[in-house]
Design brief:
The chain has 424 residues and is α+β, with helices and mostly antiparallel strands. It contains 12 helices and 7 strands. Helix 9 crosses helix 11. The strands form 2 sheets. It has a 5-stranded mixed sheet, with helices on one face. Among the domains are: 2-148, no CATH class; 274-420, Histidine kinase-like ATPase, C-terminal domain (Heat Shock Protein 90, 2-Layer Sandwich). It starts with a helix and ends with a strand. Bound molecules: adenosine-5'-diphosphate (ADP). The site of adenosine-5'-diphosphate has 23 residues, from helix 11 and helix 12.
Length: 424
């Protein structure tokens, strides 16, 4: 708020400084050839010195690199300068009014009322500074008028008091309006930024959802296609019974349904339900779900699930998602490899956790994105979304586990997941 008040004020700064210099100069010229000239010059010198100090200070502040720090103390300093200048201008009627000619009195009245009214107008956004500057001028002028003491001057003093009071009240109400205006603006900006953030979160969620359900849907499509092919073969010659791919397709569709249900739960804050489950079973079911792709790409899958304790407390859909993402990425990475081997192994990491490795013989992680692999929207694939690994890591971390990757000594990449296990 203080910054807006200062800004409203500082845009008049050059004009105010020029007015102070010129008005003081006008008075000095008016006193030319009079006995008051040395005193007038001395008085003007005080005004010019204060103005020079203010200009110098402003220049230093502008050229200083630490603008923000300067601005913080700016309000108080300005109050001091306003008071100093106000006191200097208050001295004008006090020193010269009583003994001045009629013309001189007129000039002093013009200069004092100009500085008083102009001061409040220009510093209106900061009422304390307006009061510090124009208050002494009003008081000085009042004293000077009352010192003369005749009826006209007393009437002028009354008018001056009323005008000053109206001016000061105007300054306070202007500052209040300015404050309200700025507050309304800040509130509107905060609301706009909050809804922009919500939109961003929504877009991320939509991208994540598209990525997650596209995998089981693609698998279900592959199973249904294989059913179509099997139907063209006479029943007794079919290599596998037709029920098998149908069951697998149904399982994939169920998985997609669970993902959507889980999303609905997370939106309604029901949370993902956790239960005790055997991690090896989940991994095997993911491997099974990838059979069509394995066959199509002639990939050799080795499952070496040797950990003696694979009991975890988790939501099956989330854990499935972790290994679906890792295995899908491994298949993608091996697309152009001659030797395609996917090795999934497990062993105890320590007494309380299990370590699972998903190793492929693919292209390896591109050095350009090595450090940002888990960042959202980081992808090297033409149709990738770059949300699989961020989702995977957030699930693993939710279970107080860890995930990282290392180069595979046989070429390719190994993703390592560590998850806490329950007592078997
Ligand atoms: P997406 O699969 O949509 O690109 P991910 O977050 O799952 O999103 O993966 C991000 C990027 O990480 C991939 O585009 C790929 O470059 C890299 N990556 C992930 N897994 C592997 C892997 N096994 N081998 C090589 N690169 C990988």
């Amino acid at each position: 708020m203080r910054a807006e008040q200062l800004w409203a004020l500082m845009r008049h700064f050059p004009g105010v400084m020029a007015a102070n210099i010129c008005n003081a100069l006008v008075f000095v010229i008016a006193c030319w050839d009079t006995e008051k000239f040395p005193l007038a010059l001395g008085w003007a010198a005080v005004v010019w010195s204060i103005v020079s100090l203010m200009v110098l200070r402003q220049w230093v502040r502008r050229t200083s690199a630490r603008k923000a720090t300067g601005r913080r103390g700016g309000g108080q300093r300005l109050l001091l300068y306003a008071l100093a200048l106000g006191l200097a201008w208050a001295a004008l009627p006090l020193l010269f009014f009583e003994s001045a000619s009629l013309g001189g009195k007129l000039l002093i009245t013009c200069l004092s009322s100009g500085m008083l009214g102009g001061g409040v107008f220009v510093i209106a956004s900061l009422p304390s500074a307006a009061l510090a500057f124009s208050g002494p001028i009003a008081i000085g002028s009042l004293i000077a008028l009352l010192r003369v003491g005749d009826t006209e001057h007393i009437l002028m003093a009354i008018v001056l008091t009323v005008y000053s009071a109206v001016l000061f009240l105007g300054s306070f109400s202007y500052a209040k309006e300015l404050r309200n205006l700025v507050e309304t603006q800040i509130n509107a900006e905060e609301k706009a930024s909050a809804s922009a953030k919500n939109l961003g979160a929504l877009a991320n969620m939509a991208a994540g959802l598209a990525h997650e359900i596209s995998q089981p849907l693609a698998a279900a499509t592959a199973y249904v296609s294989s059913v179509e092919r099997l139907l063209r073969i006479p029943a007794e010659e079919r290599p596998v019974p037709i029920e098998r791919p149908l069951r697998s397709a149904a399982a994939q569709l169920e998985h997609a349904r669970q993902i959507i249900a889980q999303l609905r739960d997370s939106i309604t804050n029901d949370g993902a339900e956790r239960r005790l489950l055997h991690l090896h079973d989940v991994i095997r079911s993911v491997i099974e779900a990838n059979r069509p792709r394995q066959e199509k790409t002639h990939t050799h899958i080795e499952a070496n699930l040797a950990a003696s304790n694979d009991l975890i407390l988790a939501n099956p859909v989330e854990v499935r998602q972790v290994f679906t993402n890792l295995i899908t990425n491994a298949f993608d990475a091996m697309q152009s490899s001659l030797e395609r081997t996917l090795t999934i192994s497990s062993r105890a990491f320590n007494e309380n956790s299990i370590r699972i490795e998903v190793a492929d013989t693919g292209v390896g992680v591109s050095p350009a994105i090595k450090t940002q692999l888990f960042e959202p929207l980081m992808t090297t694939k033409a149709h990738g979304l770059g949300v699989g690994l961020p989702i995977t890591r957030s699930i693993v971390r939710e279970y107080h586990g860890d995930i990282w990757f290392e180069p595979n000594p046989d070429g390719g990449t190994v993703f390592i997941v560590v998850l806490p296990v329950e007592k078997a």
